[in-house]
Amino acid sequence: MVSQAEQKSVNDAFITGIGQSEIGMKLERLPMSLTVDAIKEALNDAGLTLEQIDGVSTYPGRSAGMLGFSPIGADELIDALGIKAKWYAGGGEITSQLGAVAAAADAVRLGHARHVICYRTVYEAAALARPDEYPMPRRDRIDSYSQWFQPFGATSAACWTAQYAMRHVKKYGLTREQLAQIAITGRANAVHNPKALVRKPLSMDEYLSARMISSPLCLFDCDRYTDASTVIIVSAGEATDEVSCTPVRIAAQAGSVDRLSWDQAEWMACYQTGSDLWKKTDYQPKDVDTVQLYDGFSFQALAWIESLGFCERGEGGQFIEGGQRIALNGELPLNTFGGQIGAGRLHGFGFAHESVVQLRGQGGDRQIKNNPKVAVATSGGGPLATALLLAVD
Question: Cβ(90)–Cβ(55) under 8 Å?
Fold first, then answer.
């Protein structure tokens, strides 16, 4: 007779393999080559073969108009590697990047697949260096969601993120010195990550003297274009006997999306997502050992800290003041691989990858002490947001 615990395990979804290619800027290697490198590493990590893969999931699929942003579609990856997929998905209209992992988790729980390769490949730095091969989208035409931003010069997400951040400055007293701790912490951790794009500490003086991008965000509050591929393999609970790694359970997941056309949203999507996450699990914020929070812009990570209930709304600046709480040896280690600000713009998938590294105790010089068991990984946070609660239990 199968016990309740064993039955729960069978019905669960697990991350069984992780892989990551070289991370760089203006790499000459093609994006498919980077993707294959990451897949090979993930398969080796899990102890699986390509023949055992029967699912593929990616965000946002191949973007013909922005090949640097998303150069490899799920269908062409399946074709290139000869994957016999029973289920696959690739699209941008989901609850942000890690929504592709959440979708794969649902697929294996429902029996649509046993082992799903989830990947995010970015080639933005190389694309900028080779515009003839990777042309930028036309700026003389406004359509789709860009109609709500482009007429106002708000083509960068830095513009709308800065507005939310400035409200925290005006209403809650957020200071630049407090916000700086996100970037300073990320850069400090990146020093210990051999693959990180920037392996140089950041001082407060350097941060405060940097040029402003969109107040209160300065240059060091922003990630930078990167060329890389990150892979997460999601497996069905009933298939974990096929792997040779330590599986990490996807204990809960949540996501939400706001109206892109609505310019009066009071809170970013991460706040709804953060509160929903805890409705789907017996775990609580106090059980979390590390957080790997999206920091395309530093304020997003601060907003995730609030939205996940580690402090009250509006108190994020006070919570991270001085940086001790979120340091590698603090009570809530943040972005231990460097985040996107330090490790590079891996566009969401790096946070799930690092969560698994930490929960397995494989972080090397950046490993959190005392055997972490529970982690939260997030992506997005503005109009789109996804959160994953990961556990080794």
Answer: no
Phi and psi at 231, nearest 5°, equal -125, 135
In 10 A of CB 263, how many CB atoms?
A: 12
3-state secondary structure of 194: coil
3-state secondary structure of 290: strand
Q: Could you give the residue ranges of the DSSP H alpha helices within 229-332?
A: 269-277, 298-307, 316-320
Residue of 390, 375, 362 whose CA lies nearest to 335: 375
On whether the pTM is more than 0.70, the answer is yes
Chain position carrying tokens 């640097």: 68
328 and 366 in contact (C-beta within 8 Å)? yes
**pLDDT averaged per 10 residues, the chain (length 393):** 56 96 97 98 98 98 91 97 98 96 98 98 96 81 75 84 96 98 98 97 98 98 97 98 97 92 80 98 98 98 98 98 98 98 97 98 97 98 96 93
Give every CB contact of residue 300 below 8 A, 6+ residues apart in sequence: 161, 268, 270, 293, 294, 380, 381, 382
